[in-house]
Amino acid sequence: MGRGLVLSALVAAWTTSRAASAVAAVNPSAASTVPDAPSSPTLTVLSGQDLKVDWDAPLTDGGQAIQSYNVEWDTDPGTQEVQTLTTTTNTGPNEVQMITTTSVDVNEIQLVQTTAVELREVQTIRTSANAGGALGGTFSVTLDMRSSGGTLQTSGEISHDAAATGAAYLSMKNVLEAMTNIGSGGIHDVTRTVDVAATGGYLWTITFASPLGNVPELKLADASALTGTGAKVDFNTVNDANMLDDTFRLSFAGFTTAAIPYDASVGAMASALQNLQSVESVDVTRSGPDNQRGFRWTVTFTSELNGGNVDQMVPVTTDLKGTGASAVVTTLTDEIGRAHV
Q1: Alpha helices (H) in 78-189, listed in sequence order
Q2: Taking residues 266-282, what's their average pLDDT?
Q3: What value does the mean pLDDT of the chain take?
Q4: What is the Cα–Cα distance from 213 to 185, expressed in whole angstroms?
Q5: What's the CA gap between 331 and 298, in Å, rounded?
Q6: Higher-scoring residue by pLDDT: 12, 183
Q7: What b/e readout covers 186-196, taking b as 16+ CB neighbours within 10 angstroms?
Q8: Residue 226: CB partners within 8 Å, gap ≥ 6?
Q9: Which of 154, 187, 237, 336 has the greatest CB tally within 10 Å of its CB?
Q10: pLDDT band, residue 8 (cuts 50/70/90)
């Protein structure tokens, strides 16, 4: 017998009447009849030519003595039965999870700012007398700020040879700052030069502090205490403070506003922008002015028409007056919440 050969043996018990036998197989299961099938059959290969089959006698002989056993063997037992066992379970519906992305709704905010170069007001006071005369005594000056909402004030007595600064209340600077419409710190600087040495005339150059802006020219209040033949006091404005004036415009998304005053109110700025076809609604706040009458307008775009990151406004400053006058627009916060300054 060759290796790998599959063998199958059948053992049957026979009675004398040769009644139907019960059959038991080494591999398959056998049906039970009378007499019972032999049990526990085993098959042993003794050699290439010999097989040995052992079994136990049937439990019952069906009422007749067992006379013989029939042994059959087959080298081709056929295809073994294969059965598939499948287990299942109801797991129910699959889990469903939802991922949602959100973002805080942030309106775009842009800043409009007008500026100019800082140039302070400079005026001079000159005292003089006729040739051969000698100046002496005192004089006083007035400053009328009523046109800009201030007051009319008259200085204390100023000596014909007053020092520019220092000397308590005797210096030109201190006397002028004692006037309530100028006040402490209202004079940036004072210098004094000899104008006509022979007559004791002097020239005081007075630079006003920037917050005062354009200052009306000083005038003589009283020179009755000033002595010297032909004694007099002259005043002159060397240069006015640099102040913004007139108008500018803003362009946005292809449209340009009407003229906007340099000092436009919150309402005026909002109206100028909302009159554009490219703007639906804005909120506006204003701060200022600075020393050159520059202002800052904070513009918040509040409508769906201007949702998302919007174009930055572009200033048009052709008509804005003042040395170095300009208008600048910067984005403070865009629609996705990024701060730009």
Answers
A1: 172-177
A2: 96
A3: 84
A4: 13
A5: 10
A6: 183
A7: bbbebebeebb
A8: 127, 135, 136, 137, 138, 139, 160, 232, 233
A9: 187
A10: low
Chain position carrying tokens 């415009």: 249
pLDDT the model gives residue 169? 78
Return contacts of 256-259, CB within 8 angstroms, 24+ apart: 256/316, 259/319
Binning pLDDT at 50, 70 and 90, where does residue 91 land?
Answer: low
As a whole number of angstroms, the distance between CA 67 and CA 90 comes to 58
HSE-up of residue 115 (Cα within 13 Å, Cβ side) = 7
Per DSSP, what are the bridge partners of residue 40? none
By the 8 A CB rule, do 27 and 6 touch? no
Is the Cβ–Cβ distance between 244 and 320 less than 8 Å?
yes
Q: Where are the alpha helices (DSSP H) in 161-249?
A: 172-177
Which tops the pLDDT comparison, 25 or 295? 295
